[in-house]
Design a protein that fits this description.
This protein is α+β, with helices and mostly antiparallel strands and 886 residues long. Among the domains are: 1-232, no CATH class; 251-322, Roll (SH3 type barrels); 684-744 and 752-823, Alpha Horseshoe (Serine Threonine Protein Phosphatase 5, Tetratricopeptide repeat), CATH 1.25.40.20; 828-886, 2-Layer Sandwich (Herpes Virus-1). Helix content is 26%, strand content 16%. It has 26 helices and 32 strands. The strands form eight sheets. Strands 4-3-2-1-5-17 form a six-stranded antiparallel β-sheet, with no helix packed on it. Its main location: cytoplasm. It is found in: Cytoplasm. This is RING-type E3 ubiquitin transferase. Residues 828-863 form the RING-type domain.
Length: 886
């Protein structure tokens, strides 16, 4: 992964003046894979250099930015570039002070302070000596002012005026989305000006005939290029507190394209961290964990928009894994990361501790069920996995896990999988031992077939035949030994597994043989529960009509109603309600079937339950959530509408902490649900136990659209909480976080906003609130104004400037944010220091200053492509690029 690196001669340089001399710069154009690379020097010569071969290192890395090595969540404290590319330089003496490579080499910050070099996310920091006592060298090559002609990888026809025509390098820039300092802009003598590759994907379009001086650098602070030590695989952090490795390969390089099937592979804690600055986080996103979606769009910064669970979501590309296309008989390797596998197993059979033995191992796919989950056999063991947990490994040999010496022990060793004991509202689902047992039975069958050749009637063979849907074999075995019909294999009967797998012919044979419909497995599930959990509604209806008990409660206190709504078996749900099943029964987590219907987004199930004459929609689960609270948190506007249509008085029902549904939608930025509640006349200024209104919460989280919706529907911008903080106070002092319980204000002290997008959102919210009459001079209980509680200089300065210029006329401002941008001298949306004074054409929005107007290719307000930029005097502006590594 060295192609594109900008390099200079290194510690073991042995090629004379092949590079043109000390300080001359080149580009790695090919990693030869044997500890050597090919380098194309800016002067046009090419060399093969050692990068670890024989323990020698001919090169040092001058700049790794062309590789898109990106430091997630880190900003340069000098130039304020967020999530910059290239090497990260961290001050050893100052807490949390970071520099990008250009600022470090330009001697920003204290020269007497030693720094640590962090080459890529997850790399061990290397301590540098002080810059004040370090020798400097000057880079020479293709830099602004250099004269160039077409080079090795030229593919642009006669843009340059023809072979040998010279041009002048204007500046260093980017070639393609998500990269930096991998191209230059050239002005040709024929008047053409275009951008050409200088490291982009290892390509160099130009050759230098007259070099120019570039940046000065500290030679001893550069890292020797060791291709064996470069990151080879993109991976995402699975820890909320630290990252052992981090992706710097953008989604297009990771193999994502529109139409791909992908899976969200990270647990919630890690996903929340990655979403900062990449579309943000809402509680509803947790439902996507482990689920498959389709790529709809790839953003310019690498973020991926996917269609998942009937909604579109924007994810950091590091949170996604491509789902392979698999077939029975394929050899696959299981992902080795336990946290990721646990996350991806959500709603795909769950996780059990014995799966640890399969991580990183190879196995053979023996079955693919109707949901696409795969049964993977490894020796005498087998497991059911989300296909996203599988990496195709053609030609590999399956591993043996738990191999036994004889057939009896193989079958006796069948162990049932379990799910995590802890269940949350984001992952409530019904699991059975049947799915994993099926895979194990397939393995047992292969072993039996190999060792015996001919089957003798036994309970093992009966359950195997039932699991395969072999009705004739089942009938034959029962005819030989009728007493086997109710025998169990590891707690599961033939009827239970046939019901779960949906083998109607087998179920009918077993029922005719008087199979006991009420025998339970080790978790208390009957055949009816198994059919519902297996999403086999036709079988469930057959069992109900055959007299199966419908009021079954398993070991987790889950009932047939719970199983029906979770798995969309709404016809069976109606039949069981007709047979007097209790619609308000709670499971071990306190959830009723109505809770589960909302969690499963089963709106038809919600309608059926709400219409039942005995339904009690005020029943709260163990977390204190009534169904309407859950619908509010999930942004389930359909379920909200159904419940409120029959029970309109629930619109303001409070939890024990005083949170009403409107608080919950505001905290989670659930716009659709908010509109339903507002239409139902929910009290817009409802206060919770801390006297927080929904507007307080929206402003604390930095949700612009939610804040606007609430204010436009009567929310009081001057309302005060128990500490006399107004929404503007919380906007200025808050920090976006995941929704959840706990003291909201415990998070307000000492926290810094790191996302540039969040800062911009808060500037816009504050300006909007001020335009609606919010005061910047009101004091809270601590005697502080909104500006005084703000610890982010950019945010405070931008809002102070707006308030100073526009507070007197605030009441006359237009109500929409678009009008606000076009009519008022707002702070620049990029630097937030100067006034916006450049108008974008064609949209005519004025949202940046002159200095920053070329840092955007599309308008941040309307997303239209910018064709021209006009200053306050009506003159068309010409690009004047900002700071580059020169």
């Amino acid at each position: 992964m060295a192609e594109g690196l900008r390099v200079v001669r290194g510690p073991d340089w042995s090629l004379g003046n092949a590079d043109g001399g000390e300080g001359h710069v080149g580009t790695v154009i090919q990693d030869l894979g044997n500890g050597t690379v090919d380098v194309l020097w800016d002067i046009g010569t090419q060399s093969t250099c050692k990068t670890g071969k024989d323990g020698k290192f001919d090169l040092s890395i001058l700049d790794s930015a062309p590789l898109s090595i990106k430091h997630i969540g880190i900003a340069c404290d000098e130039c304020q570039t967020n999530e910059f590319t290239g090497v990260r330089w961290k001050c050893s003496l100052c807490a949390n002070y970071e520099l990008c490579t250009p600022c470090y080499f330009r001697d920003k910050h204290e020269m007497q302070h030693p720094f640590k070099r962090i080459s890529a996310p997850g790399y061990q920091p290397a301590t540098m000596k002080k810059r004040s006592i370090s020798a400097r060298s000057r880079a020479i090559g293709i830099y602004p002012g250099a004269t160039v002609v077409r080079g090795k990888h030229w593919e642009y026809g006669t843009q340059d005026g023809g072979p040998g025509s010279p041009g002048t390098v204007v500046d260093i820039c980017s070639f393609g989305a998500g990269c930096n300092r991998n191209a230059v802009r050239v002005q040709w003598e024929n008047g053409e000006k275009n951008v050409y590759r200088l490291g982009s994907r290892g390509k160099v379009d130009l050759r230098c005939i007259e070099e120019a001086p570039g940046i000065e650098y500290y030679k001893d602070h550069l890292e020797a290029l060791d291709t064996a030590g470069l990151p080879q695989q993109a991976s995402a952090s699975t820890s909320s507190s630290s990252s052992s490795s981090s992706t710097y390969i953008f989604s297009s390089q990771r193999g994502f394209k529109e139409g791909d099937k992908v899976c969200v592979e990270l647990p919630e804690s890690a996903l929340r961290v990655l979403q900062r600055g990449h579309g943000g986080w809402s509680m509803s996103m947790a439902e996507c964990i482990g689920q498959h979606g389709t790529v709809k769009k790839i953003e310019t910064n690498g973020d991926v928009v996917i269609d998942c669970l009937d909604n579109e979501w924007r994810f950091n590309y590091q949170a996604l894994r491509k789902v392979p296309t698999l077939q029975v008989g394929d050899i696959v390797q299981i992902v080795s990361d336990e946290d990721k596998v646990k996350a991806m197993q959500k709603k795909h059979g769950g996780w059990s501790p014995d799966m640890n033995t399969a991580l990183g191992k190879c196995g053979k796919i023996v079955k693919i069920d109707s949901d696409g989950d795969v049964a993977v056999a490894m020796g005498s063991s087998a497991f059911v996995f989300n296909p996203a947990c599988c990496i195709p490994a053609p030609g590999s040999k399956p591993d043996n896990i738990g191999q036994e010496s004889d057939t009896a022990s193989s079958v006796d060793g069948l162990a049932s999988s379990t799910v995590d004991d802890e269940r949350t509202e984001d992952s409530q689902e019904d699991e059975m031992d049947v799915a994993d047992l099926f895979a194990r039975l397939m393995v047992a069958q292969m072993l039996l077939s190999h060792q015996r050749g001919v089957f003798a009637a036994s309970s093992d063979l009966l359950v195997i035949a039932a699991s395969r849907g072999d009705a004739s074999q089942v009938q034959k075995i029962i005819k030989q030994q009728p007493s086997l019909v109710n025998e169990k294999v590891k707690g599961i009967t033939a009827l239970i597994i046939a019901s779960h797998e949906g083998h109607k012919d087998v179920v009918e044979v077993l029922l005719k043989a008087n199979a006991d419909k009420e025998i339970r497995d080790e978790k208390g599930n009957t055949a009816l529960m198994a059919a519902l959990m297996g999403k086999k509604e036709e079988i469930a209806l057959l069992l109900i009509s055959s007299g199966s008990k419908v009021d079954v409660v398993n070991a987790d206190r889950r009932t047939t109603l719970h199983a029906a709504v979770v798995n969309g078996a709404n016809t069976a749900l109606k039949e069981m309600l007709k047979r007097n099943c209790d619609p308000n029964v709670k499971d071990s987590w306190g959830d009723t079937p109505l809770h589960d219907a909302i969690i499963a987004k089963n709106n038809s199930g919600v309608s059926i339950l709400v219409a039942h004459p005995q339904i009690n929609p005020k029943v709260a689960n163990n977390k204190g959530h009534c169904p309407i609270h859950l619908a509010a948190m999930k942004d389930d506007d359909m379920s909200l509408g159904i419940i409120l249509n029959k029970f309109p008085n629930l619109k303001d029902i409070q939890k024990k902490d005083g949170y009403a549904p409107l608080h919950l939608v505001a905290l989670n930025n659930n716009i659709a649900a908010a509109k339903v509640l507002i239409k139902a006349n929910a009290f817009i200024n409802h206060v919770n136990g801390q006297k927080l209104t929904p507007l307080h919460l929206a402003c604390h989280q930095g949700y612009l659209d939610m804040a606007k919706l609430l204010v436009e529907n009567g929310a009081d911008v001057a309302s005060e909480d128990k500490d006399k903080d107004t929404p503007l106070h919380l906007c200025m002092a808050g920090r976006r976080s995941g929704a959840g319980g706990g003291d909201l204000f415990a998070a307000l002290l000492g926290l810094q906003i790191t996302s540039e997008q969040e800062i911009k959102d808060r500037v816009n919210i504050a300006c909007f609130l001020i335009s609606k009459g919010a005061s910047v001079t009101c004091q809270n209980d601590s005697g502080k104004t909104p500006l005084q509680v703000c610890s982010v200089d950019k945010l405070r300065n931008a809002v102070a400037q707006f308030a100073k210029q526009n507070q007197p006329a605030a009441s006359r401002l237009a109500s929409s944010l678009a009008d606000l941008f076009s009519l008022l001298p707002l702070p620049c949306s990029v630097c937030m220091e100067d006034i916006s004074n450049v108008t974008f054409i064609p949209c005519k929005h004025k949202v940046t200053c002159r200095k920053c107007c070329f840092k955007r290719e599309d308008c941040p307000l309307c997303n239209q492509t910018i064709q021209d930029r006009i200053d306050q005097n009506g003159r068309k502006l010409v690009r004047d690029e900002s700071c580059n590594l020169q």
